[in-house]
């Protein structure tokens, strides 16, 4: 039985959600609660439905059944611009036009807040500068994206998402292409966004120990269903790891963070 831990109100919730690609069912009758102003990690083996669920919660895929609620309101009733103002999304492998600079890309994050012929404002500029400062891309502002390393490009895309200033961030494998130091920086950034900027963040992560250390709410997925959900210390155990990943392990206390630490056997 999945454990659902949420002392705060739900920011996003899926109720009886089913998702399919054609006749192939990926998710069936999913109930998933994302607590407000917390960092939720979606973790599971390849093919467990993590990215599909994230895309559907972002409104980029249509659920074949059930409903997805944002602050209690169905996202199906929200227009694209309102959805973009409230939910920022970074998917895997984003592509930008050739020659676009980091500054150009980050400025794209302001489109939900501007009218068709609206002038660039001081608020727009401040949002972009803050986003680049938080992601360490300020010195790269005038550099073309296609000349950057994979890690630098990933940070630029994250800066664009932050410039959107949405209350919810949905990130699909955001540590892809990042070396260990930049992975730690990104996880610390997410912590700051949740703690100091009152963001609700949902990220698909492959590293279970990374999720256990940084996320306050972990959802373990297997075959499109929730195997367990809640605080890492409540749901990460030898039994759940064996069930979800098919791996024998020891779960010990992380000597630094005090969170569960999975050691495969």
TrEMBL record:
Keywords: ATP-binding, Cell membrane, Ion transport, Iron, Iron transport, Membrane, Nucleotide-binding, Transport. The keyword Transport applies. Residues 12-248 form the ABC transporter domain. Its main location: membrane. It comes from the Bacteria. Pfam families: ABC_tran (PF00005). It is found in: Cell membrane. It is a peripheral membrane protein. SUPFAM superfamilies: P-loop containing nucleoside triphosphate hydrolases. One of its GO terms (molecular function) is ATP binding. The keyword Cytoplasm does not apply. InterPro entries: AAA+_ATPase, ABC_transporter-like_ATP-bd, ABC_transporter-like_CS, P-loop_NTPase, Siderophore_ABC-ATPase. PANTHER family: IRON(3+)-HYDROXAMATE IMPORT ATP-BINDING PROTEIN FHUC (PTHR42771). Belongs to the ABC transporter superfamily. This is ABC transporter ATP-binding protein. The lineage of its organism: Bacteria, Pseudomonadati, Pseudomonadota, Alphaproteobacteria, Hyphomicrobiales.
């Amino acid at each position: 039985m999945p454990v659902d831990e949420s002392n705060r109100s739900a920011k996003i919730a899926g109720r009886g959600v089913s998702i399919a690609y054609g006749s192939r069912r990926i998710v069936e009758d999913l109930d998933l609660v994302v607590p407000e102003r917390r960092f939720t990690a979606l973790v599971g083996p390849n093919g467990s439905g993590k990215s599909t669920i994230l895309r559907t919660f972002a409104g980029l895929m249509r659920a074949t059944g059930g409903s997805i609620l944002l602050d209690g309101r169905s996202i199906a009733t929200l227009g694209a611009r309102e959805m973009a103002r409230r939910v920022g999304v970074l998917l895997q492998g984003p592509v930008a036009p050739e020659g676009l600079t980091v500054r150009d890309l980050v400025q794209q994050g302001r489109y939900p807040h501007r009218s068709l012929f609206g002038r660039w404002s001081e608020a727009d500029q401040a949002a972009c500068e803050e986003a680049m400062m938080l992601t360490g891309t300020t010195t790269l502002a005038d550099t073309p994206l296609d000349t950057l390393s994979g890690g630098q490009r990933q940070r630029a895309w994250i800066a664009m998402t932050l410039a959107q200033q949405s209350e919810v961030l949905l990130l699909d494998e955001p540590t892809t292409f990042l070396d260990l130091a930049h992975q730690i920086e990104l996880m610390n950034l997410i912590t700051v966004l949740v703690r100091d900027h009152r963001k609700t963040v949902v990220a698909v992560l492959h590293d279970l120990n990374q999720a256990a250390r940084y996320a306050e709410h972990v959802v373990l997925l297997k075959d499109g269903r929730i195997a367990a959900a809640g605080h890492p210390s409540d749901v990460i155990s030898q039994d759940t790891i064996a069930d979800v990943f098919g791996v024998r392990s020891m779960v010990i206390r992380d000597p630094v963070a005090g969170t569960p630490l999975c050691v495969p056997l």
